[in-house]
Amino acid sequence: MSRRRISAVVTVLALAGAVPVLLPATTASAAACSSYPNWTAGKSYNAGDIVRYTDGKAYIAEHANPGYDPTISTWYWEPYACDSGSQTPVGTFVVSEAQFNQMFPNRNPFYTYRGLTAALSAYPGFANTGSDTTKKQEAAAFLANVSHETGGLVHVVEQNTANYPHYCDWSQPYGCPAGQAAYYGRGPIQLSWNFNYKAAGDALGIDLLNNPWLVQNDAAVAWKTALWYWNTQSGPGTMTPHNAMVNGAGFGQTIRSINGSLECDGRNPAQVQSRVTKYQQFTQILGVAPGGNLYC
């Protein structure tokens, strides 16, 4: 069991369960693809925002930015080709509920499929960018890493309560308003530390700094925090896990972005192999090849 602090989020293997709160799945019709707001120079955008550029094409923000041009600032934006039919409506997931259950036969009831699909609207590009193969590979990569972090979606919160007071950084100007021991690991990627709860909450429009318990009590919020990390943070890596999968860098780079400082470059090869094996199992369930560059 390891504990790590990285620039954007801390993930730790954790144990325990929580009472599930189910939210209805969020869906959007394909017609919505033609009604995104026009891009405005100088307007602040959050990761996951979708705009219609002056050329009539849609773009999705990969990173928050103060209104950079989507055709120039390609690190912040990427094309969102919903009009061409290469993307499916938000709320439609490439992993069916039956496949999800097959992947996680012993999961904690908290980690509902409905909670996951409800969270998809937070990052519409997730498992919804590029070819069908790319979409399925990204979904498998995300779920494989989540499976490794949570013991097969069994663990919701960190069981070692002795660690709980350690995740409060009092040097932050906002402190720890929920209490010093309130920011322990929770959710599919085990969000930890007060500054990470604030960053994720700010990005998602949820006050997680004052109410971190939402991550263990609301299934959709829990999944959203994992998607926040996957789509916007690079951790000890050089790219987000989302970019690693959609740009062809391979599954190994998702490992580096999540726990590269402890697992990559020859460190803890058994942990790396565990993630790779799970990814290969999940791609097989989805009927897609795993691709190359599986290791880091």
UniProtKB/TrEMBL annotation:
Any single GO BP term: chitin catabolic process
Q: Where is the Chitin-binding type-3 domain?
A: 36-80
One Pfam annotation, family name? Glyco_hydro_19
Protein name, per record: Chitinase
* SUPFAM superfamilies named among the record's database cross-references: Lysozyme-like
- Lineage of the species this protein comes from: Bacteria, Bacillati, Actinomycetota, Actinomycetes, Kitasatosporales
Cystine pairings recorded for this chain: 168-176, 264-296
Q: Which GO terms describe its molecular function?
A: carbohydrate binding; chitinase activity
Active-site annotation: 149 (proton donor)
> Is Glycoprotein included in the keywords of this UniProt record?
no
Tell me the first and last residues of the signal peptide: 1-30
UniProt entry tagged with the keyword Lipid biosynthesis: no
**What is one cellular component GO term in this UniProt entry?**
extracellular region
* InterPro entries according to UniProt: CBM5/12, Glyco_hydro_19, Glyco_hydro_19_cat, Lysozyme-like_dom_sf
Keywords, sorted A to Z:
Disulfide bond, Plant defense, Signal
